[in-house]
Amino acid sequence: MIKINLLPEQKRAKVANVEKEVVLFLLVLGLLGCGMFFAQNWISTRIDSLRTANSQKNEQKISLLKKIGTINTLEKKSKEAGQYIEVIKDIRSRQTRPVRFLDELVSNLPRGQIWFESMEMEKDGQLEVTGVALDNQVFAGYVKKLRSSAVISNVILHQTSRKKIREYNLVAFRCRIESGKHADKGQDG
Question: How far apart are CA 166 and CA 176, in angstroms?
Fold first, then answer.
């Protein structure tokens, strides 16, 4: 006998598909876990390298700050040395001022016409001079030469008077000689 089933076929539950989905889910979960593991390893390696770089940068910063401190100290000492050098130059120029004064006084002195009786250097470097001259014209010419000197800025006449020495009628004078602005130039040490 032949049986004919005219009823539609019953659909079976898809058991095989569920197994495939579970396997696929586990596979995706495993891949995701591996991805997270590698990502976490990469991130921790990156963090370690950044920490190492940061510590190296901090060490370099500390080293550079020490060098900057040394440089600042040297610059300060250099400025102080420069100030000392300027003081030494000033002292040297003041040491030579009396010599230059006297040289200027003597080099412009008309021989046999003016004679100095006394010279006194004051603390401020100015010179008080007393003496006698043959006549007023000789003394006036001498003062004019001194005033044109770079070493001497001014000659202030305090007093002139007639003075008789033996049979000669001479002119006695007393004056103040002030240093010039350029008296200390040209002396580099």
Answer: 27
Tokens matching residue 49: 């390298």
Are 179 and 101 spatial neighbours (Cβ–Cβ below 8 Å)? yes
How would you list the strands of the sheet with 152-165, edge to edge? 114-121, 127-133, 168-179, 152-165
Q: Where are the alpha helices (DSSP H) in the chain?
A: 15-107, 136-147
pLDDT surpassing 70 at residue 68:
yes
- The pLDDT confidence band at residue 15, using thresholds 50, 70 and 90, is low
Hey, what long-range contacts does 53-62 have (CB within 8 A, 24 or more apart)? none
Residue position matching structure tokens 């610059």: 75
CB-CB contact of 149 with 104 (8 Å):
yes
Q: Show the CA angle centred on residue 154, arms to residues 149 and 159, nearest 5°.
A: 125
Measure the N-to-C terminal CA separation of the chain; round to a whole number of Å.
Answer: 141
Give me 32's structure tokens: 């995701």
Class of domain 85-179: alpha beta
Model pTM?
0.49
Tell me which H or E stretch contains 133: strand 127-133
Two structure tokens written together for 182: 């350029």
166 token code pair: 């033996």
Give the C-alpha separation, 65 to 58, whole Å: 10
